[in-house]
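Subject: design request, 386 residues
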C-alpha cells in the first residue's frame, strides 16, 4: 500500500522560541548558544544566517560575522516545554508519530487525508495550528516514505511545504548532492566523488557492481535504492524508548580531539556490549557532545546495516564527532544506538570471525564485569565520574 508520510521540522527552533519570548528580537538576527569565549552556536535565526552564521560555528566567528546580532545563552528547559506543545499538536494529526529530535518528527498520515480534501491541505492545517498555538513556524515535507519526506521538508525552509510524489521522485531528487542520501557522511562522499558521483542523479546512473567494489555490497545497494527515492522504513512511534546509550561527564573538560575519540571508543564498546546483551543491533548511531558552557549537540547517522559491533559503532560516532569540529572544552560525551533490529537472525553477510571474537569478549565481560576487556588506546584514561 502506498503510504503518506509527513516530516515536520521547526524553523530555527531555539532562536524562534527566543523571538517568541522577546518580541523585540523579532525580525532581528538572534544567535543562541554558549556565550563563553569557547562557546559554540546552537542555532541562529534566518536573519543571522544571512550573515553566514550557522550551527556548530564557534561563537567568536559568529560575533565577527554578525556584529549586530543578539546573542542569547540557551534556555533548554523552555525549549523542551515548547517541544512538548508541538508534539501534542502532532498527535492530533496521526497516532503514528516518530520523534527524531527536540523539534522534528515523522507522522504517518496514510488514510488521514480523508479528514481533509488532500494531504497538502492537512499539512497546511498542521502548520497553521502550530503557528496559532505556539506562534512558531514549521516546515513540512510530504512524501510516500521517510527518506523523501525528510528531504522535502528541507527543500524550501523556512516556512516550507513541499510534496514529493512517487512518480516525480526520481526526477526531483536527481540534481541534489549525493550527501543528501541517508548514510552518506564525509568519508562516503569522498569515495563517491572519486568515482565521479556527486549528485543523486549520478548515483541513479552508477553501476552497482562498481559501486560495491568501493563501498561494499550492502552500502551500494542501499544507496542505489535511496537514489531512486525508495525507502521501506516504517514510522515507529515508540522509537525513542528503544535506545541503548551511555554517556559520561568528565571531571576535567577534554581539550583535544584525540582524548575525545579515545572516550568515544570506550563508550562505543559499552554500547556494543549492551546491544549484544539485549540481542539487538542498532541501525542508527547517535552522539551527544556537551561543551563546558553546556551547549549541547546531538548528531545521528543511519547505518547501511544494523550493527551491534564496537567497530562500526565507534567509526560512526567518530565520523559524527569529526564533522562537528569540536576539539576542546568537552564536558560530556554520549553514544547511543537506536532503531533496533533483532541481531540473532542469521545473516548471509555475517562475519563469522568477528562474531566469534565478540562472543569470546562478551563471555569474559559476563564473568568479570564490563571493564575487564578494552582495546589498547583506552589504557591512558581520563579521570571521570559517571
Ligand atoms: P535543527 O532542526 O537542525 O535546526 P533549527 O531548527 O535551528 O533550524 P532549521 O531546522 O530551520 O534549519 O535543530 C533543532 C534545534 O536543535 C536547534 O534550534 C538548536 C538545536 N541544535 C543544537 O543545539 N546544535 C546543533 O548543532 C543543531 C544542528 C541544532
Ligand atoms: Mg529545525
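Subject: RE: design request

Done. Sequence follows.
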Amino acid at each position: 500500500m502506498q503510504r503518506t508520510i509527513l516530516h515536520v521540522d521547526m524553523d530555527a527552533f531555539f532562536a524562534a522560541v527566543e523571538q517568541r519570548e522577546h518580541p523585540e528580537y523579532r525580525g532581528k538576527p538572534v544567535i543562541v548558544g554558549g556565550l563563553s569565549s569557547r562557546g559554540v552556536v546552537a542555532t541562529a535565526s534566518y536573519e543571522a544566517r544571512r550573515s553566514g552564521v550557522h550551527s556548530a560555528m564557534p561563537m567568536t566567528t559568529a560575533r565577527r560575522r554578525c556584529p549586530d546580532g543578539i546573542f542569547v545563552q540557551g534556555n533548554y528547559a523552555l525549549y523542551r516545554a515548547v517541544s512538548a506543545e508541538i508534539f501534542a499538536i502532532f498527535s492530533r494529526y496521526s497516532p503514528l508519530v516518530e520523534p527524531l529530535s527536540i523539534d522534528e518528527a515523522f507522522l504517518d498520515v496514510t488514510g488521514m487525508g480523508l479528514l481533509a480534501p488532500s494531504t497538502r491541505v492537512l499539512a497546511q492545517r498542521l502548520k497553521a495550528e502550530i503557528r496559532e498555538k505556539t506562534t512558531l513556524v514549521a516546515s513540512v515535507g510530504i512524501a510516500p516514505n521517510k527518506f523523501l519526506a525528510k528531504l522535502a521538508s528541507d527543500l524550501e525552509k523556512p516556512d516550507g511545504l513541499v510534496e514529493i510524489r512517487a512518480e516525480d521522485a526520481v526526477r526531483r531528487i536527481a540534481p541534489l548532492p549525493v550527501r543528501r542520501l541517508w548514510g552518506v557522511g564525509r568519508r562516503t562522499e569522498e569515495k563517491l566523488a572519486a568515482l565521479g558521483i556527486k549528485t543523486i542523479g549520478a548515483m541513479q546512473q552508477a553501476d552497482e557492481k562498481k559501486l560495491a567494489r568501493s563501498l561494499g555490497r550492502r552500502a551500494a545497494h542501499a544507496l542505489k535504492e535511496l537514489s531512486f527515492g525508495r525507502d521501506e522504513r516504517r514510522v515507529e512511534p515508540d522509537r525513542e524508548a528503544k535506545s541503548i546509550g551511555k554517556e559520561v561527564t568528565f571531571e576535567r573538560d577534554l581539550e583535544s580531539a584525540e582524548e575525545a575519540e579515545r572516550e568515544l571508543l570506550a563508550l562505543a564498546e559499552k554500547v556494543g556490549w549492551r546491544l549484544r546483551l539485549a540481542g539487538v543491533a542498532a541501525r542508527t548511531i547517535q552522539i551527544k557532545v556537551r561543551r563546558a558552557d553546556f551547549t549541547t549537540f546531538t548528531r545521528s547517522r543511519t547505518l547501511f546495516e544494523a550493527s551491534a559491533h564496537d567497530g562500526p559503532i565507534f567509526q560512526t560516532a567518530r565520523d559524527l564527532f569529526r564533522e562537528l569540529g569540536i576539539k576542546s572544552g568537552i564536558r560530556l560525551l554520549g553514544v547511543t544506538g537506536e532503531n533496533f533490529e533483532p541481531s540473532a537472525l542469521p545473516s548471509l553477510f555475517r562475519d563469522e570471525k568477528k562474531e566469534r571474537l565478540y562472543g569470546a569478549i562478551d563471555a569474559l565481560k559476563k564473568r568479570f564485569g564490563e571493564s575487564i576487556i578494552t582495546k589498547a588506546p583506552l589504557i591512558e584514561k581520563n579521570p571521570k565520574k559517571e
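Residues 72 and 275 are 39 Å apart (CA to CA).
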